[in-house]
Amino acid sequence: MSPLLAAFGFGLVAAFPVGALGFLLGWSVEGLTPAPRVRALVWGLAFLLPAAVLAATLLGAAIPLPQPQRVLLPAPLSVDLTEFGPSGAERPRYWAASAAWIAGGLLALSLAGVLFRATGWLLARGRLAAVVARARPADADLAQAVAVEAGALGVAPPRVLIGAGVAEPLLAGVRRPAILLPAGLVETLPRETLIRICRHELAHLVRRDNLRLPVEELLAGLFWLSPLTSLLRRRMLAAREAVCDEIAVGAAPPEARRAYAQALVDVLRQAAADPSLHPAFTGRERTPTAMRLDSILHPAAPISGARRIAVAALTLLVAGGGVMGANALADEARHAQPRPEAAPARSVSLPTISLPSGASFSPVRIEADSIETFKDKPDRVVYQGDVHVKGNTESTEFRLDGKPAPAGFNPRDLPPGAVKRMEMFREGDRTIMDLKTN
């Protein structure tokens, strides 16, 4: 299996536990403070955490495994091997063929979710553009008041439009943003409340929420298999709406706050069930309404220093858990390789040694399925599989299953397949080969 495919599969499967960790973080922070800005920040991090873990896993899996070092065998076999096997830490972890199909299936389903959400979002944008094209400009007094509010918030004033087919206020467009107001709302609400509603939409413009929506739609499609994705997004958007409410009402007196809250309730009652336009004022089907109204009517007190520390500690704890999890998943993915159909026998041959007299001989030849070396014990080599020892072994001490071999023992006399494993190591000046038969 490709390491990147394995990493993608791991990241998608991890979306559920990582999402649960993010939800636990958001729930804990909401218990510490009702401050909308803190809640919006934490829920935003919780929603992005699965994507961050997936990205970190993919990046880690792209790092190639280290190449094994050359092995120097102990004397009298002290020659540089040109053929050797990986150490235990670098050995591939074989996966069944079905694992690749599962990972590929998860990838296909996730990409299908991305395509579905992207298509739905583009269609909704097209319908919204048609509504904007049919809308009429608001009166000059309201447009001027919104321009003043935009200047106070540090953004260019958007267009203020009134649409007959719009159920609730919303912010439309990116390059040429416009605040779209329902005609019935403009005719019934006081001018001051309308300005505060427009200020709410301006807050979305200041925060660049319209730029975030496409990315959030794609992430929601990518992780649609996790049931926590939609829940995390709803809580994130709810906290975001509360932040914009806080900006909209500012330091308004209680009477103005009640009028704003009543306008929200009225629009919620009248709104048509059409989530495709992404309404910014009501945030229907995604805002815990009671929490939002309470935040409007009873602004939260500043968060204390101790609670700030607690929020930071919880956030770092969850982020650290995500980093460690991504590192572990990436390490597993880097080792993911398909199991070969047949493991060919491997051999390690020591080259012919020339003596000063001009004579030469080949001291030993070891055949095995795999070889394991140890960086912390360079004088130890382990051969796995059907091991055969050939050549000149007069200077080598043999053991059978850890016990000294009988006098006159010759490993070539053993039947094929008798030796399942062999450990070669150094004890003083002696080279020892311990043949394991069971």
3D architecture notes:
The chain is of the alpha+beta class. It has two domains: 3-332, no CATH class; 346-436, no CATH class. The chain is built from twelve helices and 17 strands. It has helices at residues 3-13, 15-32, 36-61, 97-134, 140-153, 183-188, 191-207, 209-222, 228-249, 254-270, 289-297, 305-334; strands at 93-95, 136-137, 159-163, 170-172, 178-182, 336-338, 346-349, 353-354, 360-361, 364-368, 370-373, 381-384, 388-391, 396-400, 403-404, 421-427, 430-436. Helix 1 runs antiparallel to helix 12, helix 3 packs antiparallel against helix 9 and helix 9 packs parallel to helix 11 (289-297). The protein is elongated and about 110 Å long. The relative contact order is 0.15.
- Per DSSP, the total helix count is 12
Main sheet characteristics: 6 strands, mixed
Number of strands: 17
Task: Please write the string of helix (H) and strand (E) elements.
Answer: HHHEHEHEEEHHHHHHHEEEEEEEEEEEE
Strands across the major sheet, in which order? Answer: 11-12-16-17-14-15
What distance lies between the first and last C-alpha atoms, to the nearest angstrom? 32 Å
What Rg, in angstroms, do the CA atoms define?
A: 34 Å
**Given the C-alpha coordinates, what overall shape results?**
elongated
Count of structural domains: 2
Our estimate of the beta-strand percent is: 15-25%
Based on secondary structure, the structural category is alpha+beta
Helix percentage:
40-55%
What ranges have pLDDT less than 50 throughout 5 or more consecutive residues?
70-90, 272-280, 282-287, 342-347, 349-361
Pfam families: Peptidase_M56
Keywords: Membrane, Transmembrane, Transmembrane helix
Organism: Caulobacter sp. 602-2
Protein name: Peptidase M56 domain-containing protein
